[in-house]
Write a structure and sequence with these properties.
This protein has about 750 residues and is α/β, with parallel strands linked by helices. It has 25 helices and 31 strands. It folds into five domains: about 180 residues, P-loop containing nucleotide triphosphate hydrolases (Rossmann fold), CATH 3.40.50; about 210 residues, P-loop containing nucleotide triphosphate hydrolases (Rossmann fold, 3-Layer(aba) Sandwich), CATH 3.40.50; about 60 residues, Arc Repressor Mutant, subunit A; about 55 residues, no CATH class; about 190 residues, no CATH class. α3 packs across α4, α11 crosses α12 and α22 packs across α24. The longest helix is centred in the first third of the chain and has 20 residues.
């Protein structure tokens, strides 16, 4: 019989953090008792029996409520991590499939790993005679796909496959669509921003095609906590009203929450020990103490760096066997690599995993003691979802390791404000022109667009949008309906739901010819350019050649002690003015802009102290995209006529960085979703102008929020700069980790003065 330890394995670790002033904030969440309700008597007997065999004799309150709501109409369930949300949609689905042998169901997951996990969960019910689940995604072998269409009555897939593999070929899926009773959208909070705007269009296309086959499927959505769950569900599906289930009836583990700030290593520059190094050591200490741990970090490279740091720390202290039980998990791995890591996780062979958001979601990887989040993940909702993975043996540890980033350090200076922050609203815009028009073409490929019958699903402006596409030469009107001008066209192949580029660049290890993984074509200029240092499964590689024609990057093993950072040139062109107002002494505008970027070279920096080791030039073509953004023009009354040009440019540049850093405080986004440009003379405005734009084609309204709350944006930026103790600007205030100009020039004092003058007005 297992004995629950009386002492948490992280007690000594936290005390060390307090002693060294690394631990800057602490909180405690007490345990929560379960609210139980009987299994409804009218649930199908086979499902009731399956629950009983699994030892489930009662339901949590929200599970019972969700079952009743799903029987009545479209529903969204939003409760905490590990609260049993899956049962909220499994029960109504299984009930339908057991009652009607012809009925079909479709489950949508944002990741392949989640679909694999849910398939295992469904098979555990033991309802093989009534329920025949099957996964249909990019990993499904071509020879098995026809079998899935013929046999499965519950298809688990992802929005990408629905968009490219099912809807354009709906005639092959006629049996499913003619009998589609339930559509489940799990992890709905992931569908925000650009990705969410795409998925909202895909779901409308699904509803339209289902209607054409005579069905009106019931939608059930499950989500982590967001501030606007009903609005999110309605925007995603186009349905209203949608019932909300948000009272969590599951038991909650007690949880210690710790804010961890790496120490300052240079008092003058206020630079800190890298968060990746700090997290690697923390992870190693937790593993050594016996805590089964998951560590989250935003970037793929970061996941590799932290895993490697933890492994090296363990080997350096004589724990080589433990080092082999730490691994990274991220997108870009091959199917075989991912499945093997998932197996090791679920079977407990790994003690710690370092991952991007690929494992943020509800995949069951066993009981975990600790969850470490390295740098702010962009939203409080994501942070709490990640922290919620910790809670083994009734208690857990949730750690936030701050980076040098300005927003991270802002939170460390105000830990109580950070720990009490409410979750944000999810922002998406399915009618963002760049996105919506692409999906209208996809819908036209699936069947002629009829403004009379399709308006209810595709929106009241359908006729006007179709007319615009006719004007562009992409649609033609015939007898009141709209079809593709080129019937043989396949528009879905040109639309990527997750990035601005459909093209994938293969990363090939030259000596053995092995394909290590892939990266999006739109990211390749910055991540796998010639000379870039690329990390994969804890090993370093140097890019020898980026072959854009063949969409491949050739790499070789690398043992150097540096990393690379690209240098970019950015230009903006105002395409359309959508709104304008005067405030804080500036002319503030919002509209459509085209952003042109070109990677000019890269800088090599030493891993240990980030010292610059040299700059190398590159010859890569420019890339351009059209998006939404705000910009404001500064008159001479706010600037200094006698200032040297480099100080003026540095003032504008630092102000731009500071406002980009704090925009996530008011919009559900992170710094990597936003870009900017500052100039003393923009050719269209004729004067000093600062631009803040969305980093994805089309935009979805992030900068609209910045435009509407510009006064708060300026105040937060001023607070960020004025509170920082550095002398001339540092990563905690005006330096940006993604600056294409490598943070040159920057004038911290000038930015503080400029923002103060604006606020005085």
């Amino acid at each position: 019989m297992a004995v629950t330890p009386t002492r948490d394995p992280w007690t000594d670790l936290l005390q060390t953090g307090r002693d060294q002033d690394r631990l800057v904030g602490e909180a405690f969440e007490g345990p929560r008792a379960a609210t139980l309700r009987p299994v409804p008597a009218d649930l199908h007997p086979a499902v009731r029996a399956a629950l009983s065999k699994q030892g489930i004799t009662e339901l949590y309150g929200h599970q019972a409520e969700a079952l009743e709501a799903a029987w009545a109409g479209p529903t969204i369930v939003t409760t905490g991590t590990a609260s049993g949300k899956s049962l909220c949609f499994q029960l109504p689905t299984l009930d339908v499939l057991c009652r009607d042998a012809k009925a079909r169901a479709l489950y949508l997951y944002p990741t392949k790993a989640l679909a694999q996990d849910q398939a295992r969960s469904l098979n555990a019910f033991g309802l093989a005679k009534q329920v025949r689940p099957a996964i249909y995604d990019g990993d499904t072998r071509k020879e098995d796909r026809a079998q899935v269409r013929r046999r499965a009555n519950l298809v688990l897939t992802n929005p990408d496959m629905l968009h490219m593999g099912i809807l354009p070929h709906h005639r092959q899926w006629a049996d499913l669509l003619c009998n589609l009773a339930v559509v489940v959208v799990d992890e709905a909070h992931v569908y925000r921003g650009v990705f969410g705007s795409h998925v909202a269009n895909v779901l409308r296309r699904l509803r339209r095609i289902a209607n054409a086959y005579g069905t009106e499927p019931r939608f059930v959505l499950a989500s982590a906590t967001v501030a606007n769950p009903v609005e999110l569900a309605e925007k995603l599906t186009g349905l209203a009203p949608i019932a909300l289930v948000d009272e969590d009836g599951s038991p909650g583990a007690s949880r210690k929450i710790a804010m961890w700030n790496p120490p300052v290593v240079d008092e003058v520059l206020q630079t800190r020990r890298p968060a990746t190094s700090e997290a690697g050591e923390l992870l190693a200490d937790l593993v050594r103490a016996g805590a089964r741990t998951i560590c989250f970090i935003r970037s793929r490279k970061g996941a590799e760096v932290v895993a490697r740091a933890a492994q090296e720390h363990l080997r350096g202290t004589g724990d080589a066997a433990l080092a082999d039980r730490v691994a990274a998990y991220r997108a870009g791995y091959t199917t075989q690599q991912r499945h093997e890591l998932e197996r090791q996780l679920t079977q407990g062979e790994l003690l710690a995993v370092v991952t991007t958001s690929a494992l943020e979601l509800g995949i069951d990887i066993g009981a975990l003691d600790a969850a470490v989040v390295v740098t702010f993940p962009g939203t409080v909702a994501s942070l709490k979802q990640m922290w919620g993975r910790a809670g083994r043996r009734g208690r857990g540890l949730a750690v936030y390791v701050a980076g040098e980033d300005a927003l991270d350090q802002f939170f460390c200076r105000h830990p109580d404000e950070f720990l009490d922050r409410p979750v944000e609203s999810a922002i998406l815009d399915h009618e963002s022109e760049e996105i919506h028009f692409q999906h209208l073409l996809c819908a036209a490929h699936e069947g002629p667009l009829d403004p009379v019958t399709d308006t209810e699903v595709l929106g009241p402006r359908l006729a006007a949008h179709c007319a615009q596409l006719v004007g562009r030469g992409e649609l033609v009107e015939r007898r009141g309906t709209f079809t593709l001008r080129k019937p043989e066209d396949y528009p879905a192949a040109r639309v990527s739901l997750r990035s601005g580029s459909m093209e994938l660049v293969s990363i090939v290890e030259v000596t053995g010819g092995e394909v290590l993984g892939t990266t999006e074509g739109s990211r390749s200029h910055s991540t796998v350019h010639e000379g870039a240092v690329y990390l994969h499964m804890g090993r370093q590689y140097e890019v020898r050649e980026l072959d854009l024609e063949r969409s491949r990057a050739l790499v070789t093993p690398f043992t150097g002690d540096w990393y690379t950072q690209p240098k970019r040139e950015t230009l903006t062109h105002i395409e359309e003015l959508l709104d304008r107002r005067d405030t804080l002494g500036v002319t503030l505008s919002y509209g459509v802009i085209t952003v042109t970027e070109q990677v000019l070279g890269y800088q090599r920096k030493r891993l240990s102290d980030h010292e610059e080791l040299g700059m190398e030039a590159l010859d890569l073509p420019p890339t351009a995209f059209t998006t939404r953004g705000l910009w404001y023009e500064l008159g001479p009354e706010l600037l200094w006529e006698d200032f040297p040009m480099d100080v003026l440019l540095g003032t504008l540049h630092a102000t731009e960085h500071a406002q980009i850093a704090v925009l996530p405080l008011i919009a559900m986004c992170d710094r990597w979703d936003i870009g900017g440009l500052s100039t003393n003379l923009h050719p269209q405005t004729g004067g000093a102008t600062i631009f803040i734009h969305e980093g994805h084609p089309g935009g979805v309204g992030i900068t609209r929020t910045g435009f509407e709350q510009f006064e708060r944006l300026a105040a937060d930026a001023h607070r960020l700069i004025s509170e920082c103790r550095c002398r001339a600007g540092c990563p905690s205030c005006v330096q940006s980790p993604k600056c294409g100009n490598l943070n040159e020039p920057l004038a911290k004092d000038g930015a503080a003065e400029l923002l103060a003058r604006m606020l005085d007005r």
